[in-house]
Amino acid sequence: DINITTVGNGDEDDGILIQDTSQISLKEIFINDVRGNGVEFRINTSQITANNIIIDDADNDGILLSEGTTNGIFEDIIILNSARTRDWGVFCDLRNGEFCKNITFDNLSIFGGDAQDGFRVESGEEITIKNSYLNEIGNGGGDYGIEIIGGNQINISNILINDTRDDGINIFDTVSNINLENINIIDNLGSAI
């Protein structure tokens, strides 16, 4: 078990930064009050297993996956008051031409904060979000529960999105092979999808 509590840890420092590494296991972690991202995976990081993680008050993204992050299973993740600087609860980023691939979030909960979007995929392949709850997403720029900008083979199922400042789910026309199943969107200010 790891319990990480950081207070005033400097400018842009992440709670946990993992890069260019494979076979990672993160379990039973609490991260509180970080100036950067709660957890950041980047530069060809792969074979990730993460479960029972709570991230409370990250200034940037709750979880950032970028630069070729692949083969990750994230279970029982809670993100509270994320993105005080208007980033995202979870962000699958496209950097240096590398995108996220084969990433699954199961039982993800995102509550409140100033996140632009609860879950955002800039570009990715084989991204799955299931059995999850996103609540009170807003006060940032886009304010979508889930936003998919680019990608292929995106699966979203058994999701409850409550109280967004814009659309519950926003999908760009650059996305192909998307599957939506059992989606409930309530009390949002934009369109459902």
Could you list some keywords that capture this structure?
single chain; 193 residues; mainly beta; 8-stranded parallel beta sheet; 7-stranded parallel beta sheet; globular; disordered N terminus
Largest sheet: 8 strands, parallel
Order of strands in the sheet with the most strands?
1-3-5-7-9-11-13-15
Low-confidence stretches: 1-10
Helices and strands, in order, run as: EEEEEEEEEEEEEEE
Beta-strand fraction estimate:
over 45%
- Determine the number of helices (DSSP H or I, runs of at least 4 residues): 0
Average pLDDT value? 84
Large-scale geometry: globular
Radius of gyration from CA coordinates = 15 Å
Query: Approximately how much helix is present in the residues?
Result: under 10%
Describe the structure.
With 193 residues, this protein is mainly β. The chain has no helices and 15 strands. The chain has an 8-stranded parallel sheet with strand order 1-3-5-7-9-11-13-15, with no helix packed on it. The protein is globular, with a radius of gyration of 15 Å. The chain starts with a strand and ends in a 7-residue tail after the last strand. The model is unreliable at 1-10 (pLDDT under 50).
Secondary structure layout:
Layout: E1 2-5, E2 16-19, E3 22-34, E4 39-42, E5 46-58, E6 63-65, E7 70-82, E8 88-92, E9 100-113, E10 117-121, E11 124-137, E12 144-148, E13 151-164, E14 169-171, E15 175-186
Parallel strand pairs: 1-3, 2-4, 3-5, 4-6, 5-7, 6-8, 7-9, 8-10, 9-11, 10-12, 11-13, 12-14, 13-15
